[in-house]
Write a structure and sequence with these properties.
Blueprint (H helix, E strand, L loop, with lengths): L2 E5 L4 H10 L4 E6 L6 H9 L4 E6 L8 H12 L3 E6 L7 H4 L3 H25 L3 E6 L12 H21 L4 E8 L19 H17 L11 E5 L3 H10 L2 H4 L5
Parallel strand pairs: 1-2, 1-4, 2-3, 4-5, 5-6, 6-7
Helix pairs in contact: 1-7, 5-6
Amino acid sequence: MGALLILGGRSDIGGELARRLCAGRPVVLAARGEHGMDELTSELLRNGAVSVHTLSFDAADVSTHRSVIEQATALAGEEITTAVVAFGILGDQERAEHDEAHAFDIALVDYAAQVSMLTVLADVMAKGHIVAFSSIAGWRARRTNYVYGSTKAGLDAFCQGLADRLHGSDLALITARPGFVIGSMTEGMKPAPLSVTPGVVAQAVVKAIESSSGTQSSSDSRPVSRTLWIPRKLQLLAWIMKLVPRPIWRHMPR
């Protein structure tokens, strides 16, 4: 079955995916500092994980990304066959409009660091699934969150290309495009239409992984890359968004 790696071990969605995918395999939870993961570690062990290890890594330090994957593999004691890239920051749009350092930090963590880590994983992993998270925010940037939205737009484009690169191999990329996710990152914010919870996102990803692995013919068991709108009806809203005239669009809320 291989090991499960969660890059962003304290993230809501990462934790939900770990709970659903941990049974019968070693798990590595990687995050900035190893604190705050004891409860999840205990829960995963109760849910059937063979072992759970924590690993500290700084997503912004891209020079360490390859060594982080090497360390995770060593901790797990076997090859990684499912890697979830769940780290990221929302940032403060108003601050980013005047503070170039903050705008850069958002771009670094939510785009450049993601590209780096996904590139390493695609190069190192021999088989299985990589999971990445785009967002409806990247479909058409809005005045109220264009810094964050621009990173998701770039990441989504990168993922589409990476999925094409992996086509026909034993490694597949699952790209999730959820709507507004109600969780710790968005605490205190008013939910948008078609909002989802971390559990809903995780369940959709798990279903895609299972179907990706199980729909192939007996002569070709290679996994298939997929891009998911979560919920599925969000795709219709996204296409409508493209048709809204710009003078109206610039006044749209977050």
